């Protein structure tokens, strides 16, 4: 009988190419498809390019110290295993719950993205299309585990890159690049404004949020331990470079839509793009692009969130569970989680960019704590994990009059100060005990 470890990793060892495909499948998301247009419209071309560079930078930075993580924690499988090794019991439970909460946030954003895109693509209630889509994800990720996820990632990445190459190429050849540029300059000159200080602040803040998101991502940590150790760094670096082309290509697609005049809401840009794609081949390709990006991300997130819950919350409470019982509970939990997502998408009344920055306080506050857990050789202070909660709560309550972009930085700095103070306090306490 296959062990639960096989469900987690599929007994796979990934090389550079397969590792890149798996990481790209995780990080080419519904957020990328929908937040890129928001960044472009709100902050101009500078925002669209900045979104691309920031996402790539966060993956690149994680890859920079990925080898150190592998050497420091050679026998773990998930981010929760690191918490078990480094933290005390209450700190372990707090960090485990925070990571689960952030995972649910990421899944919820993908579900909302799927609802918006399916509502634009099909002339049927999006609940119906979402049901069949989630059922597909349940079969692949919930029941199949990592082995099945890996089988479908390569196909999805193929369609994603085919779409971002052929669709812009078709339109720019048809319309002409200079005609598109002249239309943007005539109807939307603000998109070309390079001295937009708000855009630079957005890029800097999004960099903070993205780094925290990658650093706390459960599925990224799983893939970190599935890639051959000698190829870990180059795999992450190559993934960062390739990923950066996706938001830029999406921005290019949207420029094709808006160069002829005005537009309504941000999401209508995608609908206008869909209606503008005349050849049936490109229409099918665009659908496969959306389906591939959404399905691979939700598969990775459902799988990682399920494992995090079963292994790091359920198993500590019921240590007598066998591998068969853990797999069975994984099937049940993943099914219930997808059903929950299907229901809550009906109540989503916000933009994905705003939602990302709402949770961005937690992502930013997690960075100092995660860096200390990973790199500090000292005994971790019991108070360290609470720095995240303190930084987050103070920033959103006492500084409610500021914008989200500003309070995210406050959350980050407060968490950093509390983290350093907690480690200093623990060191002083240890020294006083030792001196006695």
TrEMBL record:
Q: Which residues cross the membrane?
A: 7-28, 40-62, 92-118, 124-143, 155-173, 199-216, 236-259, 279-310, 331-350, 356-376, 383-402, 408-426
Q: Does the keyword Transmembrane helix apply?
A: yes
InterPro entries cross-referenced by the UniProt entry: Na/Glc_symporter_sf, Na/solute_symporter, Sodium:Solute_Symporter
Question: What does the record give as the reaction this protein catalyses?
Answer: L-proline(in) + Na(+)(in) = L-proline(out) + Na(+)(out)
Membrane topology for this entry? Multi-pass membrane protein
Compartmental location: Cell membrane
Q: Source organism's superkingdom?
A: Bacteria
Coiled-coil spans are: none
Q: Which GO terms describe its molecular function?
A: symporter activity
Q: Which Gene3D superfamilies match?
A: Sodium/glucose cotransporter
> Under the cellular component aspect of Gene Ontology, which terms does the record hold?
plasma membrane
The alphabetized UniProt keywords are: Cell membrane, Ion transport, Membrane, Sodium, Sodium transport, Symport, Transmembrane, Transmembrane helix, Transport
**Could you say which protein family the record assigns here?**
Belongs to the sodium:solute symporter (SSF) (TC 2.A.21) family.
What's the protein called, per UniProt?
Answer: Transporter
Query: In the record, what lineage is assigned to the organism producing the protein?
Result: Bacteria, Bacillati, Bacillota, Bacilli, Bacillales
């Amino acid at each position: 009988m296959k062990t639960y470890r096989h469900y987690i990793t599929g007994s796979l060892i990934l090389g550079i190419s397969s590792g890149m495909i798996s990481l790209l499948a995780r990080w080419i998301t519904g957020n990328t498809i929908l937040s890129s247009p928001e960044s472009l419209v709100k902050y101009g071309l500078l925002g669209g390019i900045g979104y691309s560079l920031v996402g790539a930078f966060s993956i690149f930075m994680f890859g920079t110290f990925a080898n150190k993580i592998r050497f420091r924690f050679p026998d773990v499988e998930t981010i929760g295993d690191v918490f078990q090794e480094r933290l005390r019991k209450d700190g372990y439970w707090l960090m485990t719950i925070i990571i689960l909460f952030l995972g649910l946030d990421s899944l919820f954003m993908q579900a909302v993205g799927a609802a918006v895109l399916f509502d634009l693509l099909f002339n049927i209630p999006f609940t119906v299309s979402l049901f069949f889509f989630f059922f597909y994800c349940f079969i692949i990720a919930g029941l199949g585990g990592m082995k099945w996820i890996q089988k479908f990632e390569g196909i999805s990445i193929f369609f994603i890159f085919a779409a971002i190459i052929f669709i812009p190429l078709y339109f720019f050849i048809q319309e002409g690049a200079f005609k598109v540029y002249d239309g943007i300059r005539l109807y939307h000159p603000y998109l070309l404004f390079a001295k937009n200080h708000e855009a630079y602040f957005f890029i800097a803040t999004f960099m903070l949020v993205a780094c925290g998101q990658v650093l706390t991502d459960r599925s990224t940590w799983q893939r970190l331990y599935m890639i051959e150790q000698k190829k870990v760094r180059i795999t992450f670096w190559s993934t960062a470079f390739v990923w950066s082309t996706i938001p830029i290509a999406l921005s290019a697609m949207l420029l094709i839509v808006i160069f002829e005049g005005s537009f309504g809401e941000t999401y209508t840009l995608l609908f206008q793009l869909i209606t503008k794609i005349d050849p049936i081949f490109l229409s099918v390709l665009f659908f496969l692009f959306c389906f591939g990006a959404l399905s691979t991300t939700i598969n990775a997130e459902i799988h990682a969130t399920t494992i995090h819950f079963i292994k790091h919350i359920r198993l500590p409470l019921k240590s007598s569970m066998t591998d068969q019982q853990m797999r069975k509970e994984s099937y049940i939990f993943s099914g219930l989680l997808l059903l929950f997502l299907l229901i809550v998408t009906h109540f989503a009344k916000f933009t994905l960019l705003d939602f990302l920055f709402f949770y961005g306080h937690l992502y930013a506050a997690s960075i100092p704590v995660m860096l200390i857990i990973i790199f500090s050789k000292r005994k971790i202070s019991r108070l360290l994990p609470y720095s995240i909660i303190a930084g987050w709560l103070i920033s959103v309550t006492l500084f409610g009059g500021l914008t989200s972009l500003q309070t995210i930085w406050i959350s980050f700095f407060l968490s950093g100060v509390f983290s350093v103070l907690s480690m200093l306090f623990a060191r002083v306490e240890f020294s006083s005990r030792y001196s006695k």
